[in-house]
């Protein structure tokens, strides 16, 4: 019996929460503790949900990951039993990746996975409706402007590298960085796996309160909701290299980036 069949059989008995990962992935390594804590809490609380992980670089794991469209690491999915006669259903996890948020999600899934799916679908519909009416966050040029409203959704987008500049209009250093940031946006404008973005902290108070530790501009890179602050040089070449290196680590490996293999 293959790994995928085992997952499906187990999901028919109780929900299965899976982390798809690669051993070389730094974001996976950072998340390992939270995932381990989740497993411990689920066992102690005796929640009816199975916590596991799949190594996408192993022989069987690669087949499972391919079937479920895993393109970046770590990717989290919940599998649960569908109505009789239907295939096992799955939900992509797009919430915060803390042990507390993961455990809360696991509790909801254990209690009623179908209700959880309905809730997530409703949230997605509401987000889509609000997006249409939220004109201030529309893309203007190569750099996407984010807000309190759409930040979490964009920053946690599966398989996408999101590089964000948090700024305020009056900041001298932000003004100096502006043309370079626009050039960086142009560099990746044709690559859907990369979003170069900015957040005006004079307007978007909620996001900035959470993500800006000290001053402006603050640069942070997000992959699948996992963030890391960029503290390196702010010239175009250095910024571009940082994005390319991050792309490589997600598993996206275009030929022109083969010189980055040492960073995988």
TrEMBL record:
InterPro entries associated with the record: PDI, Thioredoxin-like_sf, Thioredoxin_CS, Thioredoxin_domain
Protein name: Thioredoxin domain-containing protein
GO biological process, one term: protein folding
Domain of life: Eukaryota
One cellular component (GO) term of this entry: endoplasmic reticulum
Entry-linked PANTHER family: PROTEIN DISULFIDE-ISOMERASE C17H9.14C-RELATED (PTHR45672), THIOREDOXIN DOMAIN-CONTAINING PROTEIN 5 (PTHR45672:SF3)
Record's keyword annotation contains Cytoplasm: no
Family: Belongs to the protein disulfide isomerase family.
GO molecular function: protein disulfide isomerase activity
Record-linked Gene3D superfamilies: Glutaredoxin
Pfam families: Thioredoxin
Domain Thioredoxin, chain residue ranges per copy: 1-111, 118-248
Keyword Lyase: no
Signal peptide span: none
Keyword field: Signal
